[in-house]
Amino acid sequence: DSSNNIYVADYGNHAIRKISNGVVTTLAGPTVSETPGFVDAPGSAARFNGPMDLAVDSSGAVYVADYNNNAIRKVSTAGVVTTFAGSLTGVSGFVNATGTEARFFHPNSIAVDSNNAVYVADEGNWLIRMISPSGVVETHPGSPKNSDVQVISMISSIPTLTEMRWNRYGYGILKKWNINNGFGSILDSNGTIYAVNSGMIWKIYNSGVISLLAGDCQSYSKDGTGLNAGFGRITGIVMDSTGNLFVSDDNTVRKITSNGVVTTFAGAISSYGIDTTGYVNGVGTAARFNQLFGIAIDSADNLYVADAFNNVIRKITKTGVVTTFAGSGVKGYVDANGTAAQFNRPFSIIMDSSGTLLVYDAVNQAIRTIAPNGDVGTLLNGFLPNANSDYINFVAVDGAGNLYYRNMETIGKLTPSGVISTLSTPFTYGFTVDSTGLLYVLEPHSSGILKTVTGTGVVTPIPGILGP
C-alpha cells in the first residue's frame, strides 16, 4: 500500500496476512490453522476459502480473489470483510450484474487501477471481468472457451490497458481492437457506442474502454448471458426506450438487455443453433422469417424488419406480435398500401424522425418509403452513385433528415431533397451518426481506428479512442 505495507493472500491458511516492517499479522481470517468458510465479519471472525490473490486500492482497502468461494471480497483498513461482488453462498456462474447479484467461477487473480476499478481474471469463465467502484460487474474482451487466464496485473503507475491482448482473435482494449464482419452500430444518449463485430456485441465507452456485452464468436445462435450467448449473422441493431437492444440475426430477432441477457424475441432457433426459415405471422417464437437484412424501431418501440427473401416488411409489437406491414410476398415493384405493395429483396431499413420507413429495395434498385399508415412510395429509383447494390446498408438519419448509408467501399449521404454525395471515408464495416450529423466510423482489419466524419466529409481521428 502507500505506506509500504505488504499484504499476502495466504491460500492454505484461508487468511489475509499483513507484513509491516517485517512484522507479520493477520488482517482478516483465522489466526490459527482452521477449515475454510464464507463469513463476512471483522478480523479473525471472517472466513475465506482459498484466497488466491489480492490488490489494494487508493484508500488502502484490500480486494481479494476468493477462489473457492467464487467471490470478490473487500477488506477495509480496519479489517472488516464484506463481499464486494459474487454470490454470498459461494455459487459459481457467469452473470454480469451489481455486487452480490454477479457471478464468478474461480477468480484467481485481481488488480486495481488508478480509478479504483477492479479487474479480475475469472479462470473458470475464461475471461477478464471489470468491477466499477460501485460494484457494477462487466466483461472485458476474453477468449470464448479457449483461453487460460491466469494472471492480470497493472503494468504502469497509471494503468490504461491500452495494449493488453489475451485471446487468439486479437481483441483488446483501445488501440489494438480489430473490426471484422461488423454490420451495425448504435449510439446511446450517454455517448456509448454499441458495435457489432464477428457475432459479438461490444460497448465502446466515450472514455475509449471497450467491453463485451454478449456473444461468443462461434457463429451459431443460442440464448444465454454474455459469452454464453451466440449469434448467427447480425445485420442490424436498434435500442428501445428502456435501453434494451434488438438485433436482426439471420431468421430471428434477438433481444439483449443491459446486463447482456440474450433471448429470442421473434422467430425460432433449432436445437442445433440453426434458425428456422418460413413465412408465418404469429407471436414471438411462433413467427417465421426468411433472411432478415435490417431492423428499425419507432417511438412506441415497435420493431420493423426487412424480411428479404419473403419480399416483405414485417412489424413486431412490444409484446412480440408479428404481422406483415407492407408487401404481398410476391417479387415485384408496386407502390400501394400495405400488403398490396411489392418489393424485390428489401435489404435494409431505417426510420426517420417523422415515422417514415426508408427501405433499400435491392433488385429494384430503389429507395422505397413506407408511411405510418402503410402507404408505400418511391424516394429514389436507380443505382446510388458508386454503390454495389448487393451491399447497401442504411445506417442512420440525422436530425436534419439526411440519410446515411454504407456500401462495400464508401459512406453515402442522401438529403431530403434527393441530393446524393459520397463522403471521403475508407472502407468501413460500421458507423453510427448522432443528431447533428457527426459520423463515428469504425475501420476494419488494419487498426480498428475510431474516427469522426462530418457531413461534408472531413475526417478526424478521435484522440485516445482506438487511435494510432
TrEMBL record:
NHL repeats lie at residues 37-78. Transmembrane segments: none annotated. Keywords: Repeat. SUPFAM superfamilies: Calcium-dependent phosphotriesterase. It comes from the Bacteria. This is 6-bladed beta-propeller. It comes from Leptospira yasudae.
